[in-house]
């Protein structure tokens, strides 16, 4: 038999029908929905007068358009409140389980899916959100879809998809202290550009990937979309199984042992052919920061902004327009540049490990007075863990207020907006113009780098705060 | 999902020669609270089109009376970022029926095809030539023939074939949609579930 990649194995297993010369009809094992990209899909079902085919295979949360303070009060913005209510109404009508606002298990869709045991190895998983790639960390084909496709999944549990090409990214070498999984993925994106993996589905492998925790793997897979990839996955291994074994329960699975015996076989064959292969040396990676308005415009924190756009054919106008928006100049160094805001959170870095990493730096120190910090757990569970592990005191003593869960300032649909012209060091995933609010200037970085900036009020190399004894886990 | 027919389009163009235009630029997140598909065109490219005080920014191409038409000629990696289909709804609602670039983001491409907005991929060189032509002569017209899969600049006669998935081409020409197709093969889906013991 022809050797296959892990991606091919899972994909082929889920093809209900192949359309001649066209895309495949792909069966979807798990579907997540949220308030922003689902209402029009439900409207479509209503217009057609058809039901949801498998309500048990869709789970819902409210995360994008909710406040992160005073969640017990009615949402102030009328349109947002209406959208969140619409989700509840649709879930009731179609018998879909909803982990909505004020539900004890509420949180960002890509944080709660894994926490609740809905994301499992070997699945096909979609959501009307591009960061659905996060779930690839479990050895899952997971990718973001549009609202028309949400409607397809609701109606038929299938979508029509062209099969992407396959890329393998191998990461070997020794990761230096202060370098996190966020820096790894930002480094890769800066090397291959914001569109460099368009048309591909990535498999990440190598000794460095294998050494990462599930949280760290989720951060890597999460940002696959930021280089244009449909998604990225990592073959499940003992780390994956251990994470799953520790969950209180896994819906639909009573005997995890027999499931592990199946999951353990989910690997690319040794001589499987990828359409593209890239290899990186982890030893070359330093803490990263972005300087422009797409995630490909990233550099080592102690580096200088390039003199021209390396990844562009013309180079000039888009690159300079971007720097102009940021208030930066070609060749400039960013270390020491004053900042105004720090955002810890999002589906990229809103998990407990991220809060531990941030706490490690702020412990016993004080937030700089010129910095406004938005500290937003990814879920209720993360919020509870912050309290249970005593991290909450570290945050409070250092002058940080921990908010309630949600997508928050990552896309600033709610009130958590960064004002015009202000600089924000953000642990989120996108530094697009206006992403965090009209005119906001986003500098993407790891939780360690965000913490260092929050303490000094300036762009700071987090390695200055990390001693050899306090090794970073990630 | 709407059923839209596309066959032949002949139109002047609106140039947007920037690379990596993401869906947050096309429609900022703060306008995504609506629960219907209509009306997003008013906020298309909102933060480029209007100033902070909500006045028209005369420097932006959509506010330049020289340029009009149903074809948006964009830069490389158009539609990157968020999966929001609202981006496609906004472009369509504004009046565009095709977007031309040398390279589209994957999710944007699927979303566009699902809404009858035709993404046309041409080479970097031809895209550059077209952008320059439009800047010089805003009355430059192009002709897009979906049946023949040809893209032609009428004034110069440059004509190239573009690729589209045959299934999607058929859907657009015949005004069909994916859900009709999926419902028509529902028995295959149920068989698939039964074989794998998946139904629940």
- The domain tally of chain B reads 1
| Assembly of the depicted chains | heterodimer
CATH topology of chain B: Aconitase, domain 4
**Main β-sheet of chain B: number of strands, strand sense, barrel status?**
7 strands, mixed
Beta-strand content of chain A: 15-25%
The overall average pLDDT of chain A, rounded, is: 96
Low-confidence stretches of chain B: none
CATH topology of the largest domain in chain A: Aconitase, domain 3
Largest interface: A-B, 78 and 59 residues
Which percent band covers the strand fraction of chain B? Answer: 15-25%
Q: Helical region count of chain A? A: 16
Helix share bin of chain A = 25-40%
Please, how many domains of chain A?
2
Description of the molecule:
- The complex is a heterodimer of chains A (474) and B (200).
- Chain A contains 16 helices and 18 strands.
- Chain A is an alpha/beta fold.
- Chain A folds into two domains: 6-278, Aconitase, domain 3; 290-465, Aconitase, domain 3 (2-Layer Sandwich), CATH 3.30.499.10.
- In chain A, helix 2 (39-48) crosses helix 5, helix 6 runs parallel beside helix 8 and helix 13 (352-362) packs parallel to helix 16.
- Chain A is globular and about 55 Å long.
- Chain B has 200 residues and is of the alpha/beta class.
- Chain B has a single domain, classed as Aconitase, domain 4 (Alpha-Beta Barrel), CATH 3.20.19.
- Chain B contains eight helices and seven strands.
- Chain B has helices at residues 23-26, 46-49, 86-94, 106-113, 124-136, 166-174, 178-184, 186-196, and strands at residues 8-16, 71-74, 98-101, 118-121, 141-145, 150-153, 159-161.
- In chain B, helix 4 (106-113) links the parallel strand 3 and strand 4.
- Chain B is globular and about 60 Å long.
- The chains are: A alpha/beta (474), B alpha/beta (200).
